[in-house]
């Protein structure tokens, strides 16, 4: 069974129409044994998610999506997905979320994430991430430099590979880079039929006209199975660093 590691709910303001209760009921019906919650900026839904998941015998993976200042493109901010490995990791998520809200620029310093990363899993998301933007702009040397920096400074670092976007340029970069890869679904609603309400919410957030939204984001529902890409083995790569 595929574990969804990138899931947001209505606790991510104007980004999802998915409630915690509906998410977990649907996940239970699909037979999911574990599920992550990675709302943007805030952990306000984490306790409810944890308690309801435990009642349904689903392993809750508590996480957070935070914006950090770009490493190569320093005038921009980009999301990172952070997952707690244990109680200490969850405490670190609270600390990082607090830092985010205390920062007038609404970002977290990458150095702070690295300093607290021992009990976290850090994933560069496929969509909207700095590495992907560098690949798409043909700045491959910058993408390799940033990937190397993350990999050398964070013990549990992964490149996220979107289930929705199978761009060949990106896949070729992923095949060549010596970094573990994890599949991501970027879940924002339960099923394909729920796409339109979520798209309307995202349009309202961005103030664009309905119909101008990114068509790559129409399959962000709760996946039951994962169709794996042909990529190098993350396990072999992780062992090569030890």
Features:
single chain; 242 residues; alpha/beta; six-stranded mixed sheet; 9 helices; 38% helix; disordered C terminus
Structural features, described:
- The chain is globular and about 45 Å long.
- It is α/β, with parallel strands linked by helices and 242 residues long.
- The protein starts with 19 loop residues before the first helix and ends with a helix.
- Mean pLDDT is 84; it is low at 227-242.
- A 6-stranded mixed beta sheet has the order 1-2-3-4-5-6.
- Helix 5 runs antiparallel to helix 6.
- It is built from 9 helices and 6 strands, in the order αβαββααβααβαβαα.
End-to-end C-alpha gap: 29 Å
Average pLDDT, all residues:
84
Q: What class do helices, strands and sheet pairing give? A: alpha/beta
SSE order in H/E notation?
HEHEEHHEHHEHEHH
Strand order of the largest sheet: 1-2-3-4-5-6
Number of strands: 6
Q: What does the radius of gyration come to?
A: 17 Å
> How helix-rich are the residues, as a percent range?
25-40%
Count up the helices: 9
The proportion of strand residues reads 15-25%
Contiguous runs where pLDDT drops below 50 for at least 5 residues: 227-242
Shape: globular
What does the largest sheet look like? Answer: 6 strands, mixed
Describe this structure in a few short sentences:
The chain has 242 residues and is α/β, with parallel strands linked by helices.
